[in-house]
Records
---
Amino acid sequence: MAEAAQSAGELPVKRPREEEVNGAVSVEMEVNNGAAAELPECMSSVIPGWFSEISPMWPGEAHSLKVEKILYQGKSDYQNVIVFQSSTYGKVLVLDGVIQLTERDECAYQEMITHLPLCSIPNPRKVLVIGGGDGGVLREVSRHASVEKIDICEIDKMVVDVSKQFFPNVAVGFEDPRVTLHIGDGVAFLKAVPEGTYDAVIVDSSDPIGPAQELFEKPFFASVAKALRPGGVVCTQAESIWLHMHIIEDIVVNCRQVFKGSVNYAWTTVPTYPSGVIGFMLCSTEGPPVEFKNPINPIDADESHVKTYGPLKFYNSEIHSAAFCLPSFAKKVIESKAAK
Amino acid sequence: MAEAAQSAGELPVKRPREEEVNGAVSVEMEVNNGAAAELPECMSSVIPGWFSEISPMWPGEAHSLKVEKILYQGKSDYQNVIVFQSSTYGKVLVLDGVIQLTERDECAYQEMITHLPLCSIPNPRKVLVIGGGDGGVLREVSRHASVEKIDICEIDKMVVDVSKQFFPNVAVGFEDPRVTLHIGDGVAFLKAVPEGTYDAVIVDSSDPIGPAQELFEKPFFASVAKALRPGGVVCTQAESIWLHMHIIEDIVVNCRQVFKGSVNYAWTTVPTYPSGVIGFMLCSTEGPPVEFKNPINPIDADESHVKTYGPLKFYNSEIHSAAFCLPSFAKKVIESKAAK
């Protein structure tokens, strides 16, 4: 586990050779000592041997990673699942052509989506994760000693199996005895949850096209609110301020109607997500007020989890508060819709 | 100027059509109604008609933008200069294959590199910009009513000319009567500056390979320190925490030796820069102490500049403070080297 702590932002960067600089950089066409990696048909490639993330969700741009080796390709009932070894971001999990995590930067997403809600309330005990089949959010929830019960509802068993096989430092979250895995539809699962069951719900979903679409809609938020105790919190993946302000605006409007406590937007950097950032909606139900911007349950002050999971690579209490500070163009839109 | 305020993060995102979702997204191979844009030879392309940013500074990854039209290509004494119309980021300026600015996200970089230093000191009067030939930093410096004199030393006249022709909302910074443009080497310019001339120096450089290399070295920082008044400030482009921690570490060590006041690192999101973030070194010389994290000269409280330059799109006092909060992996390295 100690090695895992080395990966964030610390991979060696190749120093440029003199002949490579000043604009004459040639495209690296080949991998594996001369043979371009053969990519599966469902995987977009714009350079032979490179994976490119192309989607109508971010038209006109694409991020590409050099592929060393395809480790897995499968098609579940819900989506295409691919794992490849990249040359500079470690192993990469791709669902329906979209990067879900890389070993190099997964810490930023997993730590922020988990500790932003859990460090904002005193002594979280019961936590539900919707999606999150890779196990990374579970790993982060498990750091909290106060937590007694962690339910996870993931729709796609293949994601869980693939993560356990290829991302042991992420899937390690499944090993905690407090975790119960439910394979199934998160929307249906939530409807069956008795009112007021959870202190926190974390919605670790993919983009709102494909299997995750319903997780961005108002009836789903209403189910989440019902499943939370008074003053409970939800944190849901909420896209990019640079690319998806119209989606974010809709989410904020829906959340403002559903959640009677506070409604907030936070964001963080994740280099392999489109535009390099991802945001989160953080809301609380009516009850004891939650001031998300001021963490009252600092996980970085408690060192007991480090022995099992290694040190936090990304999250700390300062970056928690900072995550709620928005660029002016986003602040104007979001704060006007989030105000009571 | 009012239209300029519309561009940040507000370009319409095409809603996905049903048949485009679930992994079956086809690569858009063509632009301009069927004909792929012809790219100049010095411009890397991984999809026909798309520009790809490939560099040994970020091996194994590449960001690509769809090209609508090449607007300019030239070769100056220092670098290749290209301007193209992208399909979703507006016009794009590329130097030696590396994106310098796009109309859609330039606000984040220009506003942060300028207002982080200028809002940290009372009444900045004399400001020097090294590099910054596009004029965007000048535009932002000009918002400060207290400023009496703005010198800029840019090595490459072609950058200035191209910006004036293709990026009028950026090059507008050159129109302020307080601005004096010097075409020449920033290192030599600084050596000739009388001691203690400036309140602030902003180093808006490209990456430390190519013409900007010396701007990351210790003798240059020493010249900057000499050119500043006691308690004066410098802000210099300082790469990405995700990609270049070893470069950042070197810069911090150099700055700690040279600047006898405070030494700080801040960062912001810029989607079209590698890894989606860019950082800044902010240092002060011996004299009245400067607490960069707490802006004492808030430009967002003064509305007088809005009439000329439009509202700030990105910067505000909250995001100023937040920019100094670092992810744990970067905080550990930087704070240990920056400490006195």
---
Amino acid sequence: MKLCHFQAGLDQPVFLISGPCVIESEQLALDTAGLLKEMTDRLGIPFIYKSSFDKANRSSSRSFRGPGLEKGLQILETVKRVIGVPVLTDVHEDTPLAEVAAVVDVLQTPAFLCRQTNFIRNVAAQGLPVNIKKGQFLAPWDMKHVVDKARETGNTQIMVCERGVSFGYNTLVSDMRGLAVMRETGCPVVFDATHSVQQPGGRGASSGGQREFVPVLARAAVASGVAGLFMETHPDPDKALSDGPNAWPLPHLEALLNTLKALDDVVKAQGFIEQQFLN
Amino acid sequence: MKLCHFQAGLDQPVFLISGPCVIESEQLALDTAGLLKEMTDRLGIPFIYKSSFDKANRSSSRSFRGPGLEKGLQILETVKRVIGVPVLTDVHEDTPLAEVAAVVDVLQTPAFLCRQTNFIRNVAAQGLPVNIKKGQFLAPWDMKHVVDKARETGNTQIMVCERGVSFGYNTLVSDMRGLAVMRETGCPVVFDATHSVQQPGGRGASSGGQREFVPVLARAAVASGVAGLFMETHPDPDKALSDGPNAWPLPHLEALLNTLKALDDVVKAQGFIEQQFLN
Amino acid sequence: MKLCHFQAGLDQPVFLISGPCVIESEQLALDTAGLLKEMTDRLGIPFIYKSSFDKANRSSSRSFRGPGLEKGLQILETVKRVIGVPVLTDVHEDTPLAEVAAVVDVLQTPAFLCRQTNFIRNVAAQGLPVNIKKGQFLAPWDMKHVVDKARETGNTQIMVCERGVSFGYNTLVSDMRGLAVMRETGCPVVFDATHSVQQPGGRGASSGGQREFVPVLARAAVASGVAGLFMETHPDPDKALSDGPNAWPLPHLEALLNTLKALDDVVKAQGFIEQQFLN
Amino acid sequence: MKLCHFQAGLDQPVFLISGPCVIESEQLALDTAGLLKEMTDRLGIPFIYKSSFDKANRSSSRSFRGPGLEKGLQILETVKRVIGVPVLTDVHEDTPLAEVAAVVDVLQTPAFLCRQTNFIRNVAAQGLPVNIKKGQFLAPWDMKHVVDKARETGNTQIMVCERGVSFGYNTLVSDMRGLAVMRETGCPVVFDATHSVQQPGGRGASSGGQREFVPVLARAAVASGVAGLFMETHPDPDKALSDGPNAWPLPHLEALLNTLKALDDVVKAQGFIEQQFLN
């Protein structure tokens, strides 16, 4: 599948969607996008910049939600123009979709909303590539129905994204089998390595996270076989205004990407023997 | 808490929210509401009629979604006027809330949407009692943050509703501890006995259900201690246009309610000894 | 089914298996057994005294394991003779079964060992009633195979016991549907209300527990419909040498049993409507 | 850690434990061991042959259990002598440990028995390397207590093995974070790629399996970082007498191992960046 300026798929090099969880300031956005572009260029990893203008589903209403739509879109437009990278942002049920779609290159739908039929259709109908996150409550084989709803709009650029499944309370687990199962949708499969280590609600009024497992799960997913990776990053995660506990520190990102790229090269050269056994 | 024409709480008789999942026709709505009213009057169970005008989050886009907003509200208004019962319906992110709030007595929010801050606030801001369903991905102690968001609008008539938590794929489990935990929100706690036996996505393009466990879980919840019960019913569940596999057959409902009322009387007369041990 | 001096089943009054987790001393055993006998006699609840001589599967090897076989059996024999109650103890793969069977009235097998074929058969072959705890890893419908193995020895006095199922890490959940499912084994179904609130390994080197939920789950199970209840108790759980955090305080037991007995009377008088829907 | 004729650890090439689940015949044992030895020699993968003489914990008592102790040990001894490979077998609570330890090179303990203190100690006390499988009900951080019990015997050659954790009913999930967590025991961590795709009890009287996911999970585990892999294999899994549905077909094994070896080389050359973030 063509995605922005590159091809995405199990037979293509792994791509990266990355950036700080929420847009904190124009300067931070430009700085992180610039560093990420240089880094991914060096490694030969196609890159899409991600950041949110409004975190509509924070655990508590006292959490920082972002700069809002207008200011957020303006910053994303600046990133796109100045740094020269495609940008992705997530939209919600009350987002003016056309306004967002006029600026960004890729739309993303939140995991909690994957079963909202009208919403998924409205987003897909914008005609941009869409990254659909699988709900924490959904079996991987049930993503096929979600994808069908999106495709009924005529949009063929649909990606599906694993970000962990509910496992008891306040914990997610990443089922690597799901990555293979979701291939059968025909969509590029993306693994979200930072939300997968979230501990939803695990710190009382905000979500916790286990940053130390980001590299473990990212390596596992790449070796399982994915089209792309999603990883939130921050120059100083302990000071991040959203999802700091599960963000991967930007100063350690190139080292991690280097390993992931090497694994991706190996596994894609070797092929996916399970395809002979999946019906 | 005052709810419609009665008092709701752990020190009050259990109330019932019931009706067919989706509004199939005016006649079916009137017939079921009439039978439910007579039955609950006989048993001394305060009653609210429930039915949906649009099932926005069906597994597949080929499923029946209901009569739509206008026709649906007209039928609910007729039920209310002709049968003389309060009515509840569920709303979604794209529902015109004021239109619905002008007709119904209680609003209900879907489990998948319990973390959508704007939505929860907008619904609560209508000033009607709200039944907030707990997400299948949420720990019971995390409902306190959801309730806080709703209460910030000034609405004090908030209920919380357990409807099962994700347990592996395509299955839910009902954790009766959660009913006690959610008491600490100060809201009346409702147990949804029919969605709790849903098998999400369990039949391919639609959800399955285990009707045979409805009485087991309903009895367990009443004995655990709840303010109210939610149970979808249908004169002939195998012909229901939505959620038939988990609906409880109307012809068997009075027998079940009779048992539940007797259990509720016993447990509320005896008191809840755990309150001494919960901090 | 005949069990010790009474009949056990869904059409019989609920019975109780109770006592301190581990035999701490002869005096404590006699005191607790005496109080439990008086209390259950007052309430008309058939009673079996339970205590362990060796906790073979403690989380850490530094935990107290009990008085050992010889001393333990001697104390159980004294309890039986002096107090006049039947006694139950749990056995392990290296327990000399015949020695234990010569003293006690009921044998119990640990949840972790429910899939050990030889063990289950050897225990059943002693010819005493056996309470088989369902593994935390087992689906309720799979207990049928365990029961089949036990019955192949010719023993017909088999009970099955729910004690929670794994739910993420360090937590169990009690699925009340399982109590109905396990009826289909034809065995009396017992609910273990104190191990169900265990948090396995939840306190580092020992297991934690949530005592406050014992009454909630016990009421839920009785209303779901069980033949018997299992509840560990202790005069002062905070000083108990094993499983204190989930033991129910003896001074609060009669109040709880009073409620449970009342619920059991109601539910068994009303009948189990789900039986018409279970195949 | 020294293991048989090689070094095992996160800084050493991945080793393989493999063979048919149960010893079906001497001929099959010799044939499979011979092919496995040649294959692993070609790939530079240290190899230990695995097969069971008695499957003591089959779902149903009508399943094939193996040739028994005497015949089984004789076959393992023949494999060892004729093929020149170290052999591993699993032991149970009623296994005469010294007899087995006199023949095999490595002992393995079943997942269900990981919390049986006496058993774990008795096995460790044989002085051979022991592969301890983590229970399906155990959190990875709780393996530390199991390892402590084993080490108290003076045995320093302890391995820990992940084989999936309970995830709802009849399903396991492999949590790759657990592989990193268990490193902190100081023991070589092994991933069991074939039992991890078991569906316990999932086919009624026997366990099902999802063979197609073996390569996915094996690749994920190797990229997460493990000392060794465990994979049951069979020349014709559909005819295997035990665990056929989850065995990996021997004719496809070399292709899979080739990929795994390449991934292991990459990841171990790159290092494990998470070690800086784990405390």
